[in-house]
Design brief:
alpha+beta, five-stranded antiparallel sheet, 24 helices, 11% strand
């Protein structure tokens, strides 16, 4: 090969070298252009998802309005029929637009049988949802208020699921730029959630305002509504929109329309929503709400209108940002091709010029110069590559530290100088250009009460030559106090002597504050859950006492009836007769016709009174048993009302029996068969009150699920069994029913805070039960094969370690 290359002409050698240089550059250019095209395709898929979402969002706005108008018609408002017809026509038009969009881009977004089946959303094709709407529209006047509301809510849930599917398949939730990402979070998740909640709160508020007073349950529900509207909805929307506005200059320049149109719409949304939240809070603090139904619905309507207006503007701005991104990528692609073409032309021209410029006398020196040039070029390329890799690594390290809020530092013990990264300077509030940082100065950032311990930790690490990790506070130069996590290790030279120390500083202030806030919310949730659990226990006790009182009442009536019909009054007549004939009693009993019958009458009366006495004694005995039963129920309630928190070994079967006893009246009333399958298991180490709260909750849920089904045979099976091998054993309490079951899309959310499928549910019973089980070292899980296929809840509890041993 070397001999062949040496025999080539200078022009041929130059041409061959040019080819070897151009070939890898061409490959790199191809890969670069391919990456740009992929980014453009990614953004265009997001645009398709945005297009598909628009008619769905319009349906989210129109369907709750149709529900309110239908309710007015059912309440006797004849004039609302025309409004309902117009609203139905608008919904038909929105479905028509949705069908057109689906025909155009539905396959790209996997709105097909295969695409929906992959995510268990088979019933959310446009045709199926549209058919549900047609059925609701045709039968709305034949349905009662509850059925109509439920079908409207089912239709809204289907629309929300379709929005989620569009977001999943169109890259909307994977957007790489922060400005468009947070704006998409607003349009795809936050605002639709807000709009659903506003509609639900308006409907419940209208129902409460029709009553003369606000019940304690209403206050509790509206307190939850107000909190969710403020924290889960408005704060999230405001935070995401403001983040998008702040991040907008960092990606493809400032978008004028985004900065001009979104802030006014956001302010309108905040003002309208805050007004509605204030009115909602009146339900919490006033026995008689001083708000009219029209005023409350008008405020809610304004909040919804403001949210939809913000959604439309934000949705348009998402398209604007995506288009700017696509145009930026297209411009980059054009410039890259232009630069590559210019470089190629320059290379060709340069080779041509060199070839024509080399004369015969220089040909002998060409080989030596070429070899030297090749060596030099290789060294230069290697140096550039190393420098580029170094710059790239430094840039990646700085970016990673900035994102993770982790700074790095190094301490030279001999000079006492420290070198801090930019992120470490930012954490301490120091100018990165200040290179006069020493160990002594670094300790000045630590508060005086922690400084001695911090210094001792560093010095101990130098002596032990071991890594260290600890948390301490710092006081920045601007007066802010931050919480940092220090990690580090010592540097030992070849002689085994300590030469320095290096480590990292992580700002964990926000995490610590978030942990404290989460602990506070968790504590409040447990308190609310405890009160709800005690209320359910008390309800069960009242049902049982009521049933026993029925038996007491029956016994008392029977005793009263027996005493009113008793023949004991005849004894006074016999006594009077004997007294009247006491002077000649023998003659009266033997000769007088009445006297002769008197002994037989007394014998018959004695037998009758003896039978009456036996019957009354039997009823009195039953009455005493029932009264004792009432005392046992009250004693049980008093034992449950004790303060919880005591962990003690208890028999699992006894806990289950107590929970079933508290629900026995409900099972009898609904004619539900309870099957008990109790195996012999070790005692569990638990908090008795928390376990009873969990069991009562899931048993009552099973009762509700079975009572709502149309199935003739209604069963609830309660099992107690051991699970796992030695060392990992637990006790399982399983509650299975053949009731209405759980939909697949709800199974993953059933333990989420605030989620409920009951009309009057509060949405934190199962959530608090799962938390309580976890606190005791156990778990609570649910399983269902689908609707009308029943459900199974499994509570696992830890075994008493002494008994296990």
């Amino acid at each position: 090969m070397k001999k062949w290359f040496s025999n080539l002409k200078v022009s041929q050698k130059l041409a061959l070298i040019s080819i070897f240089f151009v070939l890898p550059d061409s490959v790199m250019l191809y890969l670069f252009i391919t990456a740009i095209n992929d980014s453009i395709t990614f953004a265009r898929m997001e645009q398709k998802g945005n297009q598909y979402q628009r008619p769905l969002e319009e349906l989210l706005e129109l369907i709750p309005q149709h529900r309110q108008i239908a309710q007015r018609v059912l309440n006797g408002d004849v004039g609302a029929r025309t409004a309902m017809t117009r609203k139905a026509a608008q919904i038909d038009a929105a479905f028509h637009e949705l069908a057109q969009v689906d025909a155009r881009i539905g396959r790209d977004l996997q709105f097909t049988d295969e695409g929906l089946a992959k995510r268990h959303r088979e019933n959310y094709r446009v045709q199926a949802v549209r058919a549900d709407w047609q059925q609701l529209k045709d039968q709305v006047m034949k349905l009662d208020a509850e059925s109509g509301a439920r079908q409207h809510l089912d239709l809204i849930a289907a629309i929300r699921t379709m929005i989620t599917h569009a977001g999943d398949t169109s890259n909307l939730i994977l957007d790489p730029d922060l400005d468009s990402y947070y704006l998409m979070d607003t349009t795809l998740l936050a605002l639709p959630q807000t709009q659903d909640r506003l509609a639900a709160v308006m409907a419940d508020g209208e129902a409460v305002l029709e009553r003369p007073y606000v019940t304690p349950q209403d206050r509790q529900q509206f307190a939850i509504y107000a909190n969710l509207l403020q924290e889960a909805d408005m704060d999230r929307v405001v935070g995401s929109v403001k983040t998008a506005l702040l991040e907008d200059p960092n990606f493809y320049g400032v978008s004028p329309t985004l900065q001009q149109r979104v802030p006014p719409a956001l302010e309108d949304y905040i003002a309208a929503t805050e007004r509605f939240i204030k009115l909602t809070k009146r339900f919490v603090y006033l026995d008689k709400v001083d708000v009219t139904t029209e005023e409350y619905l008008e405020a809610g309507g304004r909040a919804r209108d403001a949210s939809f207006n913000l959604w439309r503007i934000a949705d348009q701005e998402v398209d604007t940002l995506l288009q700017r991104r696509i145009e930026s990528y297209q411009d980059r692609r054009s410039r890259s091709l232009l630069v590559a073409g210019c470089a190629l032309l320059a290379a060709v021209g340069f080779v041509t010029f060199i070839t024509r410029s080399i004369s015969g006398p220089l040909k002998q020196q060409a080989d030596a110069l070429r070899k030297a040039n090749d060596t030099l070029q290789a060294e230069i390329a290697e140096r550039r590559r190393a420098e580029e890799e170094l710059r790239h690594s430094e840039a990646l390290l700085a970016a990673a530290q900035r994102i993770a809020q982790i700074g790095s530092w190094e301490w030279d013990i001999d000079t006492d100088k420290m070198s801090w990264s930019e992120e470490n300077c930012r954490i301490h509030g120091v100018d990165p250009k200040d290179d006069e940082v020493s160990y002594t100065r670094s300790l000045e950032f630590v508060p005086a009460e922690e400084r001695t311990l911090c210094d001792a930790t560093f010095k101990r690490a130098l002596i032990d030559k071991k890594p260290f990790s600890f948390v301490h506070r710092i006081a920045r130069s601007d007066g802010q106090e931050r919480i940092t996590h220090q990690r580090g290790d010592v540097i030992v030279n070849a002689e085994g002597k300590v030469a320095g120390m290096f480590g990292t500083t992580q700002d964990i202030t926000e995490r610590k504050l978030a942990e404290e806030e989460m602990a506070k919310m968790h504590k409040n949730l447990l308190e609310v859950s405890r009160q709800a659990g005690m209320a359910e226990v008390a309800t069960g006790v009242l049902h049982n006492v009521g049933n026993v009182l029925n038996s007491v009442n029956v016994s008392a009536m029977l005793i009263s009836d027996r005493l009113s019909k008793s023949r004991v009054a005849h004894l006074s007549n016999v006594s009077a007769t004997l007294k009247a004939n006491s002077g000649d009693l023998a003659q009266f009993l033997t000769a007088n016709p009445k006297g002769k019958k008197l002994p037989g009458f007394i014998e018959s009366l004695a037998e009758r009174l003896t039978a009456e006495q036996k019957e009354v004694l039997t009823e009195v005995e039953g009455l005493a048993k029932n009264i004792a039963h009432i005392k046992e129920i009250v004693s049980m309630q008093q034992s449950y009302a004790k303060i919880s928190g005591v962990i003690e070994p208890l028999p699992a079967a006894d806990l289950v029996k107590d929970a079933l006893e508290l629900n026995s009246a409900a099972f009898e009333r609904h004619k539900i068969e309870v099957i008990r399958e109790f195996a012999r298991v070790p005692q569990v180490m638990v908090d008795k009150h928390k376990v009873l709260q969990i069991l009562i909750n899931i048993i009552r849920n099973a009762k509700y699920a079975v009572s709502e089904t149309s199935r003739g045979e209604k069963k609830v099976i309660v099992r107690v069994a051991a699970q796992g091998a030695n060392g990992q054993r637990r006790v399982q309490i399983i509650v299975a029913d053949n009731g209405v079951g759980i939909a697949p899309e709800n199974l993953a959310r059933i333990f989420a805070h605030g989620f409920t499928t009951k009309r009057d549910g509060h949405g934190f019973g199962l959530h608090s039960s799962a938390l309580a089980a976890r606190e005791m070292g156990g778990s609570l899980v649910a399983h269902s094969d689908g609707l009308d296929k029943g459900a199974t809840f499994t509570l696992e509890l830890p075994i008493d370690p002494h008994e296990e041993a």
